[in-house]
Design brief:
Length: about 260
């Protein structure tokens, strides 16, 4: 009886281990093949501080034949960070699951993010759009359709007082964009707000869409251009695809351990 019980326990543990291995494999396969809503192949980014430096560098980078698009702005592929509060101007209910992303129209072009409002308002210096998830939450609170939010005012961080606006920072909603996975897939259905400028004054990252068969050659060209505007900080780049892979490194390691 003891031997039979031991065999049964071992069998149950084996089935559980196999089930867990299959589950992890399916999850990693899903992550690898899921459409994130933006371009990740052939995209790299690197740090740069200052709008003036970016303006000079952008001209040089755009002249490189292998560089298809240049932009400046926040880069997707993060763990969750910087969630802030927000509400509609005429509402008392405050939500706390929003993230404001500062970016440029050029950066959206690099990432090929679907923003029809940006195309329609291309002559504007600044455009504020919200994703579909945020639109549906706010529309439900207001008792209106998501489309009726366009033109209304959203207040970010309404509890904080500032000299310019009083309480909170007001944004006029110019449009609604489809959801895309800015953060790790561990955090679905996040309210995302894009503060999009034509000419960024505040720059931390430069994004490039590159089409090339000789990466070392084109990277040398990019570094050479970079060094004409930045002499103190060494050139260091990251491929967006690699950045996204790093988000799920722990899950991959778990899968390798289970399969081993």
């Amino acid at each position: 009886n003891f031997r039979n019980s031991l065999v049964t326990v071992q069998f149950i543990l084996l089935v559980g281990l196999l089930s867990m291995t299959i589950f992890v494999y399916q999850q990693m396969n899903f992550i690898s093949n899921k459409d994130l809503g933006f371009q990740k192949e052939g995209v790299l980014f690197f740090g740069l501080s200052g709008g003036e430096k970016y303006a000079q560098l952008k001209t040089q980078l755009a002249a490189i034949p292998e560089v298809e698009a240049v932009g400046a702005g926040d880069v997707p592929g993060w763990e969750m960070y910087n969630q802030s509060t927000y509400k509609m101007k005429d509402s008392e209910l405050t939500l706390s699951d929003g993230t404001v992303v500062y970016t440029s129209q050029d950066a959206l072009n690099v990432l090929q993010i679907d923003c029809q409002t940006c195309i329609e308002l291309a002559d504007k210096d600044r455009v504020f759009v919200i994703n579909q998830t945020a639109a549906e939450k706010l529309a439900k609170i207001q008792g209106i359709s998501p489309e009726e939010l366009v033109g209304k005012t959203l207040i970010s961080e309404p509890e904080y007082e500032n000299e310019e606006f009083g309480f909170g920072i007001p944004y006029t909603i110019a449009g609604i964009i489809p959801d895309f996975d800015y953060f790790s897939l561990k955090y679905p259905s996040q309210s995302l707000f894009l503060d999009i400028v034509k000419t960024p004054n505040y720059v931390q990252s430069v994004l490039l869409k590159v089409d090339t068969k000789n990466w070392q050659k084109v990277l040398n060209k990019i570094e050479k251009a970079y060094k004409t505007v930045e002499t103190e900080t060494p050139f260091a780049f990251t491929f967006l695809d690699d950045r996204l892979q790093q988000l799920y490194l722990s899950e991959k390691r778990a899968g390798l351990l289970l399969s081993g």
